[in-house]
Automatic annotation (TrEMBL):
Mitochondrion in keyword set: no
Name of the molecule in the record: MFS transporter
Species, as recorded: Streptomyces pilosus
One GO CC term, this protein: plasma membrane
UniProt-recorded Gene Ontology molecular function terms: dipeptide transmembrane transporter activity; peptide:proton symporter activity; tripeptide transmembrane transporter activity
SUPFAM superfamilies: MFS general substrate transporter
Keywords from the UniProt entry: Cell membrane, Membrane, Transmembrane, Transmembrane helix, Transport
């Protein structure tokens, strides 16, 4: 990345004399590399996780239990972004929170690398906690590099940052996945720790280029608030320790005693947060109306992510057991499928951006609601496509790899229609009182979707059965059609937001 840094040949202190990163503040390089290495470690571990859980040389669990663990883990990562943002705002400030988060993630991957099922689950918990802390705060620091929302470089800076996410996500399955599957599972998890270690090291070395505001705690806790928070945390931690100690000593403890409460939490918390905001009497009539419209987007997004995130669990486990994972006779590791989405994102995102601009100039760009509905329909279509390889496998044959690539392609196009729009509409429709919290609310849609998948798996539903897949596909398509049919009502509720 050093070759992309330039320095104008003018005297120090002169505007334009500072080093830049593709024309952006030098601090963007620090955050770009931090996020790239964090995503490298996260997606590398994620690609290995369901395969390790079902492998005879791994934990040897059933596909249903593996899917439940995977789904609960993902839902926790996104659920913890809200307390992660709270820590950055009230306790440590964004810079310190990200540094600590990176250390927790690295420790989590090292714990995963230990050959013990007990420490494995502790490692998953550490990675989830660290990811929640980091995810909520690193984007805040990107925004702090620019002079307010009207800085013309701001959108481009977030685009460059987004490329770091996808570069890390693309490379991880190819490297960590190959080592984990072909050499040793735990060596793969250790390699994820190395990646995060590199990210933390360069973050600490390059943090001098970040905006000074990143070290400031925006709204520090008062002494009374700090004491109250510690008391409540100690109380809940004590209750959990006593309850699980009693279960263990009585001999009644099973994995479901952890999975079920965490999964229910992933469904209940999003509902409670949305309900609390909706009932807030401080919101004026226009804000209340926008929140009513936002509920449509939230529920639809939860359905979308419920299906989309099964690309790393249901589809991956299917590929491991029932797909011909080869191209022209050349076999590749199953984890490589997880690189399909990020490479398609990098290839297609600029194309979509160009298409929207071209249509906008002609006054024909689809509305937010139409884009959202289309994304939902496409994720449903991806699971209708999934019915073909499932039928082939049920006939006793191996399904071709291209079937899975087609599914990931369809889901990626759906993501490009729904995800950026969802992020945008969340910021536009956020009540003033909850402006800084609403991005966390958007992530709760992912939590709700993944937690629903977890609940289905815990309940014994086989997500690799044609009937279940067809039902999920139908649900997504019907949800997309419903959003489109009621678009005028939703548009009216949105008020001045377009």
């Amino acid at each position: 990345m050093a070759s992309s840094l330039t320095k104008d040949s003018v005297s120090p202190g002169t505007p334009g004399s500072e080093k830049t990163f593709f024309g952006h503040p030098r601090g963007l390089a620090t955050l770009f590399m931090t996020e790239m290495w964090e995503r490298f470690s996260y997606y590398g571990m994620r690609a290995l996780l369901p395969l390790y859980l079902v492998a005879p040389g791994g934990l040897g669990l059933s596909a249903g239990t593996a899917t439940a663990i995977y789904s609960v883990y993902l839902s926790l990562v996104y659920l913890l972004t809200m307390p992660g943002g709270w820590f950055g705002d009230r306790v440590w400030g964004p810079r310190k929170t990200v540094a600590v988060a990176g250390g927790i993630i690295m420790l989590g991957h090292l714990t995963l690398a230990l050959p013990s099922s007990g420490t494995f689950y502790a490692g998953l918990g550490l990675v989830a906690i660290g990811s929640g802390l980091l995810k909520a705060n690193i984007s805040t620091m990107v925004g702090q590099l620019y002079q307010g929302p009207d800085d013309p470089r701001r959108d481009g800076g977030f685009t460059v940052f987004y490329m770091g996410i996808n570069l890390g996500a693309f490379a991880a399955p190819l490297i960590i996945g190959t080592i984990g599957e072909s050499v040793n599972w735990h060596l793969g998890f250790a390699l994820a720790a190395v990646g995060m270690g590199l990210g933390v090291t360069q973050f600490l070395l390059g943090s001098r280029h970040l905006d000074p505001a990143s070290s400031v705690v925006p709204k520090p806790l008062t002494h009374q608030e700090r004491a109250s928070t510690l008391r409540k945390a100690a109380l809940w931690a004590g209750i959990a320790v006593v309850a699980y100690a009693a279960l263990g000593l009585s001999g009644n403890y099973t994995l479901n005693w952890v999975l079920v409460p965490l999964t229910l939490l992933g469904v209940i918390v999003p509902v409670m947060v949305i309900a609390r905001i909706k009932r807030d009497k401080d919101l004026d009539r226009a804000e209340q109306s926008k929140m009513s419209a936002y509920i449509w987007f939230f529920v639809a997004a939860a359905i979308f992510w419920m299906i989309y995130d099964q690309g790393g669990s249901t589809l991956s486990i299917f590929a491991d057991s029932s797909a011909e994972n080869s191209v022209f006779g050349w076999e590749f590791p199953v984890s490589w499928y997880q690189s399909v989405n990020p490479v398609l994102i990098m290839a297609l995102a600029p194309v979509f951006a160009w298409i929207w601009l071209a249509l906008n100039r002609r006054g024909k760009e689809p509305s937010t609601i139409v884009k959202f509905a289309s994304g939902l329909v496409l994720v449903g279509v991806s699971f209708f496509l999934f019915l073909a390889p499932l039928s082939i496998a049920e006939g006793g044959h191996k399904a071709a790899a291209l079937w899975l690539v087609a599914i990931y392609f369809t889901q990626t196009v759906g993501e490009l229609l729904l995800s950026p729009v969802g992020l945008s509409v969340t910021t536009k429709m956020a009540p003033a009182k909850y402006a800084s919290q609403m991005m966390g609310v958007w992530f709760l849609a992912v939590t709700a979707g993944d937690a629903t998948t977890g609940l289905l798996s815990i309940a014994g539903v086989d997500l690799n059965k044609t009937g279940v897949v067809a039902m999920e596909a139908t649900l997504a398509v019907l949800a997309g059609v419903a959003v489109w049919m009621y678009r005028k009502k939703v548009k009216a509720l949105m008020g001045d937001v377009r």
